[in-house]
Amino acid sequence: MNAKLWTVDDVADYLGIPKNTVYQWRTKGYGPAGKRIGKHVRYQPEDVTAWVAAQGSV
User: How many CB atoms lie within 10 A of CB 21?
Assistant: First the structure.
């Protein structure tokens, strides 16, 4: 696994949403799965892209 983990900022940029929305989704159990590493939340890029694909077409 050589891929860099994404930060909340990275996920927000990728999705084109405010980072506060990512935090709110996480609180509500919605959105891509993130992992807490110490005091930080990190995302695997493939989890984010898989979550987007599962949302269907817009």
Answer: 15
Q: Where are the alpha helices (DSSP H) in the chain?
A: 8-15, 19-28, 45-54
pTM of the prediction? 0.86
Question: In 3-state terms, what secondary structure has residue 17?
Answer: coil
pLDDT tens by residue, 15-56: 999 999 999 999 999 999 999 999 999 999 999 999 999 998
Phi, psi of 41 (to 5 degrees): -105, 130
Question: Closest Cα partner for 14 from 5, 38, 28, 40?
Answer: 5
Q: What is the pLDDT of residues 1-16, one digit of tens each?
A: 567 999 999 999 999 9
